[in-house]
Amino acid sequence: MPVVSTVKMTARQFLELGEDPPGVRLELVDGEVAVSPSPRPEHSWPDRMLTHFLLAHIRARDLGALLGDVDTVFGEHDVRRPDLVYYSKRRVDLIQAKSALQAPPDLCIEIVNHSSGIIDRKDKFRQYAAARVRYYWVLDPGPQTIEGYRLSGGRYRLTARGEDGDVVRLPPFSDLAIPLAQLWFPH
Questions:
Q1: Count of H helices and E strands in the chain?
Q2: Which residues partner with 129 through β-bridges?
Q3: Which domain holds residue 178?
Q4: Does residue 26 lie within any of the structural domains?
Q5: How far apart (Å, rounded) are the C-alpha atoms in residues 98 and 176?
């Protein structure tokens, strides 16, 4: 009879593994290492464009810090790498330059790719809410949509949605107009 291990890897053990191998992204999900491919251009372009808009806005108003693709601990057995995370100015001191993020961000942004739709819309939705991430955005290049959610009563509530060429304003940056047409990979 084969021996099956039921021991879960801890976040600390996972973080000791070091850098991801070339061509893949690793996350720790309920104590198991989850492997996903590196982003494709249809994912990378919206990431860079959204970063451009957000970073300019955040820096011009001294609102806090925007980071991308950083190991973020969401529990003893969970380390995720949201595409973008934002910490408000009053919480920036929670970021330590040489370690994974240990405190939940104010905002997590996930960009859906060909294999992550269910994970981004269900698993991470629940996990980020349980960790008390105040805002969650889901950007989906396929149907060219973005949805913004705010945590209320332990659950995310839709605050705004846009598609195609809409200009959207999503909390916590309701004073920033984001032209969605510029986020989609040019064909």
A1: 4, 12
A2: none
A3: 40-182
A4: no
A5: 30
